[in-house]
Amino acid sequence: MKVIFTDEKELKKELKNSNEKALSYLMDTYHQPLCLYVYSFCNDSDGAKDIVQNIFIRLWEKREKVEAIVSLKRFLYKCCYNEFISQYRKDKKILAFEVEHVNALEELIKEENEALLKKQIELLKIEIQNLPPRCKKTFLLSKQEGLSNLEISHKMDVTIKTVEGQITKAFKILRTKLGDKISPILFLLFNSKKFNPNIF
Q1: What is the mean pLDDT of residues 19-35?
Q2: Which fold has domain 7-91?
Q3: pTM confidence score
Q4: Where are the domains positioned within the chain?
Q5: Which of 127, 112, 111, 126 is nearest to 173 (CA)?
């Protein structure tokens, strides 16, 4: 029979006292939501599970300090996000312009809660889908496929100026929805792991 902890203070106390039932309850409650949260960043199911597993292991290893955590839920989401950024830095050679976006993401997560960030990501996906057809195709060839403007112009049989105009138009439309936050969120969507077009 599963033990249910309705009081977080009691849950933290039991975790500190090495009660494995408290850890099981925490994992039953947050493991799947955390995996979905991390997956929304990396589009890698196994990678998301590894990150979440690591966070629970670290929490258990440092359980004597758990009572100092204000909110376990917020703590777990923040740790998962930080782990994602940390792994991204290790797994990829980050170019100068990428560092700027990664730093912007870190600032963004400080300012806003994880649920809101996820909502903004979903909103951006929807708005990309709603772009005018030619504009959307040009934008995705650039951001999703990583093609240069010259390559896009050849592929679509248009001038480079037309390509530049369509990408500028896409940014203008999307910026009306997310403002200046669009750049780091776009970076998160298209550069974290191999992009999965099925998420659209």
Answers
A1: 90
A2: Rna Polymerase Sigma Factor; Chain: A (1.10.1740)
A3: 0.53
A4: 7-91, 112-200
A5: 127
